[in-house]
Amino acid sequence: MGRYLLKRILGLFPMLLGITLITFVVIHLAPGEPVEMQVSMSPKISAATRERLREFYGLNKPLHVQYVNWLSHLARFDFGKSFAPDHRPVTDKIVERIPVTLSLNVIALILEFCLAIPIGILAAVHRDTLLDRCISVFVFVGFAIPTFWLALLCMYFFGVQHNWLPISGLHSMGSDKLSFFPWLLDVGKHLLLPVGVATFGSLAGLSRYMRSTMLEILSQDYITTARAKGVAERVVIYKHALKNALLPVITLLGFSLPGLIGGSVIFETIFAIPGMGQLFYQGVMARDYPLVMGILVIGAFLTLLGNLLADLCYGFADPRIRHGRD
User: Fold this and answer.
1) In whole angstroms, how far apart are CA 41 and each of 44, 56, 287, 306?
2) Looking at the whole model, is its pTM more than 0.90?
3) Architecture of the domain made up of 93-325
4) Domain extents for the chain?
5) Is the pLDDT of residue 188 over 50?
6) Which of 53, 86, 130, 257 is within CB 3.0–4.6 Å of 306 for a Cys-Cys bond?
């Protein structure tokens, strides 16, 4: 297991390097350039001024030279300075927004797994019954509805038409003067719509995955043997079958790790939440290369780390995998 772990960790670095190279080339090939985006509202700016701006940002150099310069800064854990008018360090901007995005996505992820796993088990245990069909209709409605459209519908119904919930931001005006519990309630009201939409849209995939895995486990011989010995059905389901059915779900949990940082672009943009998703969207629209690269590098690293953690959890959950790798 130790040798496998060391091999996987060492393999992260060349893979991350390849991801950064491809990403760097792709975002520079996208139409539009930071200078043009900045001066588009000032048509009287001369070509010489545009060229000086390109030189200031280092965009006049060949692409491979720009990449090497960016990589040298990355080696010192420096994402550079934003191309935005404030020219703030990218790291400062990211650190500002991470707590909001992490809070939003961790809550949504916990709710998703806490709801999808029981729903999947319930559908598998009552296979081909009316309950199973109703669950299938419910989760697939959430899967079929476009997320942005569902968010807009919820904003109109709960916020505009009935004024039950706020539809933008994280705080109401004057919330800084509230005591702790009223302030916490105000934040909860603002998070209810984005978290609810994010959770509902993700239930279908995970719950159906859990259902199919559970059905496969319940058809195994050792489950039939346990039932033949008179073991209680509750013990068969939740002790013998559930542990093995959760193994594939562990992999999905590892893949969910990068979504904690970059998986909320739609929600944060629509609901005007000042998080990483909104920052990434603004960076893409402004062709802010250092900012976009900084967020993408974090997302790529978390993806690789999630894969590694999923494999390790697999090994700990199933001794056959652990001993087979030794």
Assistant:
1) 9, 20, 15, 43
2) no
3) Orthogonal Bundle (1.10)
4) 2-75, 93-325
5) yes
6) 257
